[in-house]
Amino acid sequence: MAIATRKGNFGVQKTRKKRNMAVLRPNRSRSGDVFIWFMLAVFGFFFAFPLIFAINNAFKPLNELFLFPPRLFVINPTLNNLQDLFIIMSRSWVTFSRYVFNTVFITAAGTIGHLLVASMGAYAVSKYEFPGSKFFFNLVIITLMFSGFVTAIPNFLVLAGLGWIDTYWAVIIPHFAFPMGFFLMKQFIDTVPQSLIESAKIDGAKEWLIYSRIVLPLIKPAMLTGMIFSVQALWNNPQANLIYTEQLKTLPFALSQIVGSPHTPNIARAGVGAAVTLVMMVVPITLFIVAQSNILKTMANSGIKE
Amino acid sequence: MASVTATAPASTPFSRYLAKKKVQRAYTWNEMKKHKTLYLFLAPYAILFTVFVVAPVGVSIFFSFTYFNVLEPPRFIGFQNYLNLFLADDVFLIAIRNTLILALITGPVGYIFAFLFAWFINELPRYLRAFVTLVFYAPTIAGAAFLIWSLIFSGDAFGYLNAFLMQFGIINEPVLWLSNPQFMMPVIIVVVLWMSLGAGFLAFIAGLSTIDESLYEAGLMDGVKNRWQELWFITLPNMQGMLMFGAVMAIMASFAVGEVTQGLAGFPSTDYAVHTVVNHLVDYGAIRFEMGYASAIATILFLAMIYTKSLVGKFIMKIGR
């Protein structure tokens, strides 16, 4: 198809290739370069240090965790902490695999549903102007600013009314309406050329066909980005106020039970706590590394016009 | 105008207005019928969005004028909740003060940091750039990993910072970083800044790489002397959309600080030294079940965010002019 050859040819500009800035921009001072490198080094250390510390802690044996003065890097790395974590979890009343399943299921179902529902809506709002479309999109922009706290109380009442409290749906279905994903997808679909859609129409394609065969394959970067943000939101959220049954609870909640809070720290499990921190941050960070270039492609269209 | 009224005496301004409305309405209705498939496309999202995002805000505003404890039906009490908040609730005033301090410092500083880092990173070689992006963004996505700071700022001699300072003889005894009101706020500010570069940071990086190269070349011709002039006259005006998006993200992050204070300083924190509006909201909503009162807090937070956004929006539109 003619469309296939044009794929990837639109809107988003390619990231700049590596080249010598000094030649290209003669207005750069050497002292400015030094200043920038210095700032990046200092703040890079500030940003990286706690996470390096967290990763190292997960591999420290107990005697190193309470060493005075404490050391950043591990001397004798051990897998005991991770092992202990799995032992504790396998002995728990609800098995570890159940918590993992709950989290993965909620994250996957919420994300897939969100991507489908939001991309359909975003397509309609982006490519057509119909009564209410502009208004709706402006509403979505405003709600980007809402934190869950503002809507938590009425949401609970609605979910209770629907009888969804204490089921997976209480977490999954409201997440379909996640505004960030809708916003980014709409902005990205804006860059799909109108002519592609019109030519498909002339060939007799109906809306559904245009959406599923032309638009969807073209917005993969935005889908991937929506996926990352959605997974982040679901993966880290303990959802403790919506699900009570132990068998339905998620991994972050279960893990937070092991570690104890910072003010009632479980000293004997300090090592396991460090392992928990590592386990929880591995998934979102890995996903980000894999999808980084796609995310940046999508964010290139994130501008809001006032 | 005069001739129109003369030829059609029945046509008063009001009837003309009605006729115009009628035509408009018919047009709108036709447009809607023409696009009915599109409404089907939008419907699933629109319905869920209305039920779970828009309606709750409306309901929340309604509850804020009632006394509601979940067990009994809500009872209308007018502005009583708001009066109580501002006149009778000392802790709320502390929470407002703390939230404002946090928002006024972490919001702008985090926002400017996010932009500066993105700008610094922009000229790095490609793979180094990807790596540095990860270093700066990882804290934002690492979720509960911020709890590692509780080890760093731990109040005993094993706390990383205490041990470090004691080793170099700067302090003689451990400092209670997370329970001495003197130190709590600065500590929280540091942690919030650490984890709040956010989606705005990514938008800035992406935005910088899409600015047309020819604009910079034209700038050189026009005599742009250094990178700071280039930043102010070319770069910033060309990414106002990104700046606005970043601002929205920063406002959300800085006004909604609550999890961090609860996680690091406990709940309630010593002397309410880092008690924020969100902590207060959670206190009344999830612990005391005074939903009407909690809704009033949520409404105030919401209005503060909207107002800040419009202020910031006006400022951003002036950049580079």
Sum up the structure in keywords:
heterodimer; A: 306 residues; mainly alpha; 67% helix; disordered N terminus; B: mainly alpha; two-stranded antiparallel ribbon; 1% strand; flat
Structure characterization notes:
The complex is a heterodimer of chains A (306) and B (321). Chain A is mainly α. Chain A has helices at residues 2-6, 21-24, 30-58, 62-65, 80-91, 96-127, 133-143, 148-162, 169-175, 179-189, 194-202, 207-218, 220-235, 251-259, 270-299. The two termini of chain A are 39 Å apart. By secondary structure, chain B is mainly alpha-helical. Chain B has 16 helices and two strands. Chain B has helices at 2-7, 13-34, 36-63, 80-88, 90-122, 126-141, 148-152, 160-167, 181-194, 198-210, 213-221, 227-235, 240-255, 259-265, 277-287, 291-317, and strands spanning 66-67, 75-76. The mean pLDDT of chain B is 84.
User: Please, what is the average pLDDT of chain B?
Assistant: 84
Radius of gyration of chain B: 27 Å
Class based on secondary structure composition and strand pairing of chain A: mainly alpha
Secondary-structure element sequence of chain A? Answer: HHHHHHHHHHHHHHH
Low-confidence stretches of chain A: 1-20
Q: Termini of chain A, distance in Å?
A: 39 Å
Radius of gyration of CA atoms of chain A, rounded to a whole number = 24 Å
Greatest chain-chain contact:
A-B, 101 and 112 residues
> Could you say which overall geometry of chain A the principal axes of the C-alpha atoms support?
globular
Reading side by side through the largest sheet of chain B, how are the strands ordered?
1-2
